[in-house]
Each structure stands twice: as C-alpha cells, then as structure tokens.
Amino acid sequence: MSVINRFESMMQGIVEGSFGRVFRSRLQPVELSSKLARAMDGNQQLMQDRRIAPNLYDIYLSPRDYAEFRATEGRVIPMLSEGLIAVARERNYALTSRPILRFHEDPGMVTGQTRLEAQILDARALQDGQQQAAGGAGAMDETRSINPAEARELARRTAEAEQVAPAWLTLNRPARGKPMQITKPVIHLGRHLSNDVVVNDKRVSRYHAELRFEHGQFVFYDLGSTNGVGVNGVLTHQPVPLKNNDLISIGSHEFIFQRR
Q: What is each CA distance from 52 to 86, 189, 211, in whole angstroms?
C-alpha cells in the first residue's frame, strides 16, 4: 500500500471519528489528501537532477466547505502537511521547506468542488508570504500540531509497507526485452536517467508516468505529460487499473504487464 493510501486510510478513520459530526459537506479530508498528492506529482520541477516538489498549496473551496474546513484547520492542515511529506519521501521528491497549505473561499464554486494551486517557493519568499498573510482568512499557523496519539498513528501507518504482489514489466516494442520484476510500490517511467524505467524517446517526458500498487492492484498513472500514456492501444491521461497481460505504452515504447 502506498504512503498516500495509508494516509488516506488514517484520514478516513479520523473523519468517521472526531470529525464525523463536523464535516457534513461533500468534500472530506480524505478526498483532499488525494488531490494534494496529485498536485504534488503534477507540479514538480527538475533542479540539478533532483525532483523538487511544491511547498505551497492554495486550496480554493466553496463557502460551505471553506467554513467547515476553517473550523478544524488546526488539526486537519498539519496532518495533510505530514501526509505530503510522507508522499515526497516515498517518491524521492525534495522539499525546500515544510509544505504550507492555505484555505481560500471561492463563492463561484459549489459544495464538494475544490481547486488547487501548487508552487515552489524558496524559504525566504515563503516566509515573506506568510508574514503578509498573517491574520488573514487564508493564513495558516505552521506551528500548530496534532495530538500525540494521532501523531503516533500517522507514524505507524506510514512505516507499514504492504508487500507488492508478484508482477513484471517486459519491453515488447521496439525490441523484445527481459522481464523486469516490480519490487517497489511505485515505479517511475520517463526519459530522465533517475527513473526506474528509462525510455529514450523525444516524445516521452522526463517524468512521464508511474506504475503504482494501490489497494491490492496496479494502476498506471500519467504524470501530466504532453502525449499521455497508452493502455491496450488507447491513449489517456487518466489513471488506469491494470490486468494481467495488458499492454502499456509511453511514446514508441510498449511494455507487457504481467501479474501472478
């Protein structure tokens, strides 16, 4: 199970417990944790051969969702921030500072909708921005902490690792390759040499796609590439759960996915 899925599971338990009576809106913290992880994936930058993840997240909510999240942000925001740190650690992303999250009210949005803006700021710019926002409706108190029991539970769940089911990727095109066993919950595919599967093709982005083991199944993700990914000949930018003997492709390279 990936870090973000373990984190979502923990957030779900909290929602059903102490926050259950508070969050009556359609947008739940567990949903927001997934959206934040996707925003981290989609807005990273390559700096000196390192993938730098966003450290500032502006979250725009409907008036109803905004009111309910603001009422509990002292507990929700630190946990979401810790979740992003865990995701960055698992995916080998670098952070220039602890992730900062700010809620904003958007009257034009309906209940359950959210819009995220993620960006990378250096520590000085981030500190200046926080000082300017101090006391404002969207400000965040970074020093607020979760209670010890929740912190221990988050650490325990993050440390757990579900065994990855036996699976292999085999290059099928442009030439037949040897099967590569998948031994990690996240496999990176792209043109950059730091990827687990390096694809030397100009149509392939530096960090093009990921194969993730989630909830007992493998899912193929496009990481915001220009040309998308292919599954059994169909191009898409959406996550696709994989079955045994599915054909996945990026650029001109096609792989056979096999699972026992």
A: 14, 17, 20
Answer yes or no: is pLDDT of 155 > 70: no
Q: Decide if 215 contacts 134 (C-beta within 8 A).
A: no
Query: Would the pTM count as exceeding 0.90?
Result: no
- For residue 61, give the DSSP letter: E
Q: How far apart are alpha carbons 193 and 178 in whole angstroms?
A: 19
Taking alpha carbons only, the member of 218, 236, 227, 166 closest to residue 191 is 227
Q: What CA–CA distance (Å, rounded) separates 88 from 4?
A: 10
Contacts of 121 (CB under 8 A, 6+ apart): 55, 56, 96, 97, 129
**Residue 256 pLDDT more than 60?**
yes
Residue-level pLDDT at 6 = 55
> Of the candidates 86, 55, 249, which has an alpha carbon nearest to the alpha carbon of residue 159?
86
Give just the sign of the alpha carbon dihedral 30, 34, 35, 39: positive
pLDDT band at 158 (very low <50, low <70, confident <90, very high): very low
Contact (CB, 8 A) for 253 and 201? yes
